[in-house]
Every structure is written in C-alpha cells, then in structure tokens.
Here is the input.
Amino acid sequence: MGTREPMTRTSRTPGPESRFAAALGALLAAGVLAGCTADPPPPPTNSAPVIVPGKPGEEASTIPPGEATPLEEEAPNDADIAFVQDMIVHHAQAIELADLAPDRARSDDVKGLADRIADTQRPEIDVLNRWLEQHDLPKVDPAAHGTAHAADMPGMATPERVQDLREARGADFDRLFLQLMITHHEGALTMVEKVRRTGVNVRVQEIADDVAVTQSDEIHRMQGMLGA
Here is the structure.
C-alpha cells in the first residue's frame, strides 16, 4: 500500500453572516449564564416629577411621580382637519412643480432638491390621508385639486405661474423654480403656525412640527442657491 498523504485543512475567513451568527450566539449564551447566576435587578425607581405638555398655546404642567397617566389623543377639531386636508393639496402642487425639474433644470443642485421635495412629500400625503381615514374622514385625492385651488391657501402658485415654469428652460427654470418653491414653502409655514394656534390634536401638531423643520431647512438651502 502507498503512503497516504496527510490531509490538509484549508483555513477560511468567516464571512459577515457567520461572524454575526457567532456574535449573536455569544450574546445569547452570556445572557443565559447571567440569568442563571445572578438575581434579577430591582425595578428602577423614579422620584423625579413628570412634565406634562400643555395643549397648543398652553404651558406645560408638572405632576408628582406615580400620578402620571398616558396622554389621551384629543379628538381633532375643524382646524386640525382643515390643516391636513389643505396640506395634501399643498404637497400635491409642490410635487407637480418638482416633477418638472429633471427635463428643464440646468443646475444639478436644483434637480437634486426637486427630487428630495418629491420623495419627501409623496409619502407625507399618504400619512395625511391615513390620518383622515383613522378619524372616519374621506381621503383627499391630490389629482382632483392641483392648481385650481391656488387661491385657497398660502404660498400656492397660480395656474399662470405654473405654466410659466412649464415653459422655462435652463437657468430661467432654475431661478423661477426656486422663487416659486420658496414662496410655496413659506405658505406651508404659515399653515403650520395657524394650526399650532388653533388645533388641538397631538398627532397633527407632530405632523406640523415635521413640516416646519423640513421646509424651513429647504427654504434656507433654496435662498442660498438663488443668491449664488
């Protein structure tokens, strides 16, 4: 018989999946051992007072620990409902303007900003319509409104200005797009300030805050691009 060649073992660097599995196994094993050898920690205690946010326009209050109860979402009033319905239409026009940019804008920055606006506000329309459904209110179809409702809310571009933007190209488009969108965003901030004063629904206030943060940031960016 011939001499058998010794078997050699080829080492292989473990891939990300095996490393993740090994790490997870180690963590689970450590947790099991800790559970077997250590007593459970005592529940945390909190002696600090609890701050309860007030309604829009009201100051927050402080209550002793242990007396806090979950906040109930107050039923929306007419101001909350109007804000949500109008913001859907407002967003729809912003998307309409943004969708013109890829074929007409010269600046890559303007094209990128338009993409961001459309990508942000499309899902926000879905969120707003879901809120309406949750409160047994009819959804708003953005396609049924468009520029015909330009005079109904702040910042909306008139049909004539939208047509001007459709016909513009290159640097002229960039400048007009930024001008219209700055005004459009400023109108949204006006709507936010109104619902902050007159609305009562916590979820609507959160949505309004999100709109304010996002669109304030975009206004600053567009003002810088317009002045460049």
Observations:
- The domain at 80-138+152-227 is CATH 1.20.1260.10 (Ferritin).
- Residues 1-38 have pLDDT under 50 and may be disordered.
- The radius of gyration is 28 Å.
- The beta strands are 50-52, 61-63.
